[in-house]
Records
---
Amino acid sequence: MTTWGLIGASTIAAEHMTAAFRANGGTVASVLSSDAGRARSYADAHGIARGVTSLDDMLADPDLDAVYISTTNEKHFGQAMAAIAAGKHVLCEKPLATRIDDALTMVAAARKAGVVFATNHHLRNAGSHIAIRDAIAAGTIGRVLSIRVHHAVMLPEHLRGWRLTSPDAGGGVIADIVVHDADTVRFHLGEDPVDVVAMACESGLGQGVEDSCMSVWQMPSGVMVQTHESFTHQYAETGFQVYGTEGAILARNVMTQRPVGEIEIVTSAGRAPLPFADHGLYTHAVALFEQAIAGTGRPGADGVDGIKSLAVAEAVAQAASSGRRIAVDYRGV
Ligand code: NDP
């Protein structure tokens, strides 16, 4: 079973990932923080043997099989490159990097080194989204015409730090949530957005970075996608709606970290609930990562998926700042 090192004493590792590694039989051997006291207290609080401040020390541990990178976004690149050079498998948080060229370099380096590299896009691991994708693929609603993604939330108070203030750390709702929506739409349709238009603004929490965004994406098949992401919407529900020639899939409260929500299929036959599995999203993601390490599968979202979601977010950001329609540049990936 996999022995993990946590690169970053983060909220997501504390709230979701450490439990997901353990649920899959893994051990969390060490945690890296930039602050020695924090490394120690985080290790103690979460039952982790070592709290360290040196990445080289962590990576020198021969028992370490894999690292999970969940520092702020500008640190992912250097830390991933070091881990890959040390021969460790890498599960990296989204966005993979603050610059797409760095993401390309990371993924190419992992491929060359023969290590597993995955992007922690959780939504495609949800039973709800797997059920929606399967219903689309089965032709339940005919040919897909359009998708609406409702992903406006209120950012919890304990996360109101770098996301709202720091472009350098990769703050802003586009880097934070548009990447997830891009991955989810790609997962459902099996195709990549061609070009986008967008508007973004500061709507109450952002300080120098956008905290709300709306965009429209054109897919190669002609499907149109409309998305709404925000950090400032206390009373909004999340949702994912797929409209086809023969029906609709209406999902409520499924753009979330938990295995919750409701899905309804609407066709000429009437309305019916669509059942779905309620496994933990992150536990499922780690299970797929473990299978990839064992050579018996592939990660839920791999490095290329992480590059593509970042490319869509980059296009949305450019469209919002320029007011122009922007072609998504996947850099040949
Ligand atoms: P946090 O702000 O909790 O953690 C980021 C860094 O901030 C940590 O590495 C830590 O630095 C520092 N930090 C955290 N808490 C404190 C504190 N109380 N005092 C001082 N420093 C602190 O970020 P998140 O966990 O929200 O996000 C981390 C990464 O995970 C991002 O890349 C984000 O995009 C991604 N993410 C992904 C999600 C998903 O579902 N896939 C969900 C949430 C986040 P140090 O390590 O140096 O101690």
Note: The pocket of NDP is lined by residues 8-12, 33-35, 38, 70-73, 93-94, 120, 122, 159, 161, 176, 257 (CB under 6 Å).
---
Amino acid sequence: MIGRSNVGKSSLINALVRRSVARTSGAPGKTRLANIYRVARGSSSPFYLVDLPGYGYARGGSDDFARISEDYLRSRRGQAVLLLVDSRHPGLQSDLEAWRWLKTTVAASALVATKIDKLARGERIRAMRELESVLEHSVLPVSAVTGEGLDELWNLIDSLANNPLRHRRPAATAPPSHPRKKAPLPLKK
Ligand code: GDP
């Protein structure tokens, strides 16, 4: 799992496993380490969930995401990655860059929009549409507070962990799941 600092990664991990294993905080840039959890769930095969340092806050002249997360992901190209984005801030440059980078670097990746409970119905529809349009991929809305989307997220994680190739897209050839409107053809005079 990767995402900007404060995107809600620790809260989501705690909500997924229904216990407080990951430290949460309102202070951005707090998580400096990669945390690794062995997840054993029901009869499914156990897998390792790796909580990589957030990006977007470069403190002390070094960017944790650039240093730790990129090295980690590069050395394990076969792994699947979940990129978390904040549903309230669609289209942030750092998220777009992370997504573009992931698509060319890791075997399989998927997108999750956090804190969806913070948006009213209309805002939520607009935000999800914008997210899927700029990222050119489907995005799963979730909330660590209300539990919305967590069952779907477990299904996505199971599928990524057990069958990552299903989530692999050939570089630059897959059509966007939400194509933008085509520009009108110029009128002939
Ligand atoms: P991290 O830095 O990505 O690990 O982010 P945290 O999990 O520490 O969350 C950052 C802040 O967002 C904390 O104040 C959380 O309580 C809050 N937060 C996280 N997830 C949610 C969510 O789904 N809904 C709401 N309303 N707040 C959330």
Note: Confidence is low (pLDDT under 50) at residues 171-189.
